[in-house]
Amino acid sequence: MSDIATQSGSTEETKRRLTPGNSLLLAVVIVFGLLIVIGVGALIVGLFRTHDSADMPALAAAKPSKPVSMQLKPGFTILSSDTQPGRLVLHIRSASEDEIDIIDLNDGHLIGVIRAQAPR
Q1: Average pLDDT, 10 consecutive residues per value, the chain (120 residues)
Q2: Which of 45, 69, 109, 112 could cysteine-pair with 102, CB 3.0–4.6 Å?
Q3: Long-range contact list for 59-67, CB < 8 A, 24+ apart?
Q4: β-pair partners for 81
Q5: What are the domain boundaries of the chain?
């Protein structure tokens, strides 16, 4: 008999704990928990996708399709060089002028030139 009383008591206690307000709160907590799990999963997938795809264009752009060579004009020296995806930027100087050359690494053509008088 005591088992029956205990079972009916626990059922009443469960009913008291799951009032409409509590069951709504429980549903909200479950939904937010699922959203957090889905969001973390999407974040991980996104990180792996951008990590894999971010390296590929830069490597493809930096690899020339054919060997590229160029000669400096007489009297010019290279002061510095820098690279951008698919481009080489050279700062060159002669006795009379400074020049910045931007070269496409895919085919070696000159994209742009910026000239200025050399400092005295």
Answers
A1: 52 66 88 96 87 56 63 87 89 88 85 80
A2: 112
A3: 61/85, 61/86, 61/105, 61/106, 62/86, 62/105, 63/105, 64/105, 64/106, 64/107, 64/108, 65/106, 65/107, 66/107, 66/108
A4: 90
A5: 2-62, 77-117
pLDDT for res 40? 96
